[in-house]
Design a protein that fits this description.
Elements lengths: L1 H26 L5 H5 L8 E8 L5 E4 L9 E6 L4 E2 L30 H32 L2
Antiparallel strand pairs: 1-2, 1-3, 3-4
Length: 147
């Protein structure tokens, strides 16, 4: 009961707050939110940097153009620390060769034939008998100790 009352009151409050903005947008008036969500970059915070690649393929950035090097200008808003996006070239598609699948040796794969299954069951019965004999001996020793 309390939850539904609180939910109803919060919903009514949200509608009351949003109604003036919706009414102003419907009539074409500015709501004031445009200034909040629009990005305006003042000229004072804009700075141009340059990027270039040396002979070994290493990229460098700087605010001065070096001599004899082809550079690319990059405009940066130093107040926001955001660079403009640039396109990255798609990598060239290389031909994919299928890898040869190595087949395991047949001796490494455990194959159970009916004869080998019977033999495996006989071995498990022997192991079971050994464990039962061991348990019997341990129990006798405990009884001899008086426990």
């Amino acid at each position: 009961m309390k939850f539904s009352l609180i939910f109803f009151m919060l919903s009514a409050l949200a509608v009351a707050i949003a109604t003036p903005y919706v009414m102003k947008m419907a009539s074409g008036q500015k709501t004031g939110l445009e200034d909040v969500f629009s990005v305006k970059v003042p000229e004072q915070t804009r700075k141009t940097f340059y990027k270039w690649q040396d002979a070994s393929g290493q990229w460098h950035f700087g605010d001065e153009v070096p001599e004899g090097v082809a550079t690319v200008a990059v405009e940066v808003d130093t107040a926001a620390n955001i660079m403009k996006p640039f396109d990255i070239p798609e990598p060239e598609e290389k031909e994919v060769k299928p890898k040869a699948v190595e087949s395991p040796e047949l001796s490494a794969i455990p194959i159970i034939t009916p004869e080998r299954a019977t033999e495996a069951f006989e071995k498990t019965d022997q192991v079971k008998a050994l464990l039962e004999n061991r348990d019997k001996q341990l129990q006798e020793q405990l009884n001899a100790m008086g426990r």
